[in-house]
Amino acid sequence: MEHPISAPNVSSLHRPKRAKLSLTKIIVTVIMLVIGIIFLLPFIWMLSASFKPEADVFKYPVQWIPHTWNVVENYRAVWFGDPPFMLYYWNSIKVSVMTILISVITSAMAAYAFSKINFRGRDTLFIIVLLTFMIPGQAVLVPQFIMYRSLGLFDTHIGLVLLESFSALGTFMLRQAFMSIHSEFIESAKIDGAGHARIFAQIALPLVQPFIATYAILRFIWTWNDYQAPLIFLRSPELFTVQLGINRFADATGEYYSLIMAGTCSAILPLLIVFLLAQKHVIGGIALGGVKG
Amino acid sequence: MERSASQSTASSQSKSWLSTTAKETIAGYLFAAPMLIGLTIFILIPMVSLFFISLTKWNFIQGFRGVEMIGLDNFRHLFQDKSFFVSMLNNIKLLLAVPFTLLFSLVIAIVVDEKVYFKSFFKIIYFMPYISSVVAVAIVFQILFHPSQGPVNGFLMSLGVTNPPKWLADPTYALPSIMMITVWTSIGFNMVVYLAGLQSIPKDLYEAADIDGASSWRKFRSITVPMLSPTTFFLLITGIIYSFKTFDLIAVLTQGGPAKSTNVMVYEIYDQAFVNLKMGYAAAESVFLFAVILLITGIQFWGQKKWVNY
Hints:
The structure holds 2 protein chains of 2 kinds. Chain A is an all-alpha fold. Chain A folds into 2 domains: 6-76, no CATH class; 79-292, MetI-like fold (Orthogonal Bundle). Chain A contains 15 helices and no strands. In chain A, helix 4 runs parallel beside helix 7 (157-165) and helix 4 (85-116) packs antiparallel against helix 11 (209-225). By secondary structure, chain B is an all-alpha fold. Chain B folds into 2 domains: 2-53, no CATH class; 95-263, MetI-like fold. In chain B, 41% of the residues are buried. Chains A and B meet through helix 1, helix 2, helix 4, helix 5 and helix 6 of A and helix 2, helix 6, helix 7, helix 8 and helix 9 of B. Chain A: It comes from Paenibacillus nuruki.
């Protein structure tokens, strides 16, 4: 940055070297591909086992590509069997969608207040929000459990949703986003007579849409994957989410590993789809949160 | 402050009976209220009551009649409790996974960043375990590491290992197995953060080093590592905190066993509270966990100011 003039010279020095390097680059790519496949072997094994008849699952050497296919039977047994995986799926979707809605709306509103409205006590309140960030969820399980038992929120989906919805992280992330909006936008809207409700809904929210998407996707992954809260705060099997469901399923089916693997594949599939469709958001969101700390 | 307040009162006098400042304040509180109320009910009130519960002996079966104030007895007991001590020790051993994760992630991040084609493809591959459900991953590993039938031991036996370890079923190997799975699942997150850190290193530093004829190793040691130190520090702290919160893997794979060899603090809390129903004692353990994590966060704040080379 300090030597803008020397920069072109240096890069021209580089050019012949770059072209020569490409062979090394190909070799490294191939090596990384092999390591990557080894890295993903647990997934590959899982997928392959879910396609096989039970008798072939533990055959050694491993049949990575099944000799006999049993896909339809396995997945039908999992999805429509007993315990019913479809129900767990529906419960997880319900809980995730409700959590995302509540979490995104409350976080965005609070983030807007903490960045674009000037009011007395704002900084103190924001510090309180940040302080809750330091409380590990695991430390307050006991009082939350007692509270849930006495308020009738125990063993309900809405209870689980409320527990997963409120976190300082969303407020913090979206506040950063709102702060990048120029105040002139807001001021000129105010002069035109718009109140904060209208400015928030019609100007501010559309401008931070990518950040909202990132946060919603991350919240989906975290909620879908959560095991601890459902384990403690749900009891009735008909309310179980996918994570509780596969564990129960694994216990109930016992030795039918091909079916268990069909279950775990089904549990991971929505995550994989969301991740592949929105990988820029996911990786970008993690990197943003990570570097900002 | 005063001037702007009186100014706004004057300008809005004709239109409305509320001053602009008051309007702003009302709007601010209304917008922040849902989040603030939620955080208060679901996090702050539980946190405050945690301290109270930790001073009681509370067998939950009897409901609120089962509460008995016992002062600091729980904490006295805590420091003599062998089971809790073991769980703490296991948490400390588990920390060993953090430097390994950092090392692997850094190497992968550097290679993926500069040295390969199809960069985003490799990002996806190494990130996948991180987004996958922990429960599903745990179940898969349980089968892979199955002592007699699992493919891992099948592979080892085919290499001529006659007595392969029983992994999760063996007190010596259970915790290392958990560590391996933790490293595997955390590499994605750490790699992505490292990749972001690498982007922020000015390229002319490397160009200057090239002119000086520095070797790749020298550039790595003298530019990459020091410039990444804030990232490494952040990941170290996040890794330690995450490690102290380990629960899902243990709950699915070992339930703290065999012979308490994988009993970690959060699992111990879970066990005392929801299996033994000793709410007061579990609360005291939670206070201890909270203190540990607060201490680490404190180190983070202090370290960010003092130690990190920005």
